[in-house]
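Contributing new complexes? Match this layout with magnesium ion.
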Amino acid sequence: MSDSRIIVHCDLDAFYAAVETLHHGFDESIPLVIGSDPENGRGRGIVSTCNYAARKFGIRSAMSISEAWRRCPGAPFGNAIYIRGSRGLYSRASRKVMKILKQPAEFFEQASIDEAYLDVTEYVNHDWDAAVALCRELQDNIMREIGLSASFGIAANRILAKMASEINKPRGIFRILPDELVDFFDGRDIREVPGIGKKRATQLNEWGIATVDEVYVYGELSLARITGERFASWITRVYEGRTSNEISPLRSRKSIGKEHTFDYDRDNYEIVLENLLSIVRRVMKSAREIGVSGRLAEVKIRYTGFETHTHGRSIPVSMDDDEVFTSLAKKLFANNVQPDKKIRLIGFRLGHLATPSTKQTRLLSIYEEE
Ligand SMILES: [Mg+2]
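Output block (do not edit by hand):
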């Protein structure tokens, strides 16, 4: 056990909503929806994100703002709070949190505005109990100094640490020891594995596979006949704890990207989102054609007047799946689009590419503008 790395994944709980709640002094038990102006249920925009109280009504990121209003109206028809959100507040809070998280990490990787991976192996001297104590301390520091709630997952690789941080959310800490993997996966829904989306889960369900241990029992060879070899080999490595534990602060320059400029500036975000998703599917198709997968998703939004922002998020292991990246892109767009600004250009980039070394030089130049 002493030769495995100790990887921590930290994920802030309902981050944007928590920052707004703190800033405005809102009551946590009142549904809070951040997004476009709902215009009393007639708004054409989308939900950026919402707090746990709003999630109880089935409100989700990227849902149309009018649908959210139907489920849970604001004043004078209901008690939900609707606000636009303030980017500046989020990046300031994020920077403070990351500063705290960086301290004990030998290797540190910020995966998005509210998520980071830390390799703390040396800091805790290979001691898994000390790792739990460290996470408790980081959690307390983040709460005391910034007032935000964070969840932590501890495991021997990235994907397991990420799964672990979801388990006791919010304000949870969960550890998966290297020799607990069989127990951990026993009866665990396959949809809990990052990278397995609805489509893949349905496909596996049709073959009577619902849990991770059932995937393994099915066997890599038989599974490959249903899902293809790549997925079968990947999920087998997940089960056996053999996926990546590398935490890298350096953003790879190798990437595949595409973008689209609208013929006129758009304020209908549902249409922009449709365009974005079709760009993502084309990027992923290119990736599969040249045989690479990626670990970083980046959405680029250019508003009227050339103001351009790039929003990224990395995942625990590299993938080449449409569903994974369409859902990431959707979330990145919904969480970051600035309400009521017209959009001129939308783009998507797949980065942190995993590729055989012979292909690397070719990839540096793959970038298309449409
Ligand atoms: Mg989060």
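Reviewers usually confirm one structural detail per submission. For this one: Residues 31 and 179 are 41 Å apart (CA to CA).
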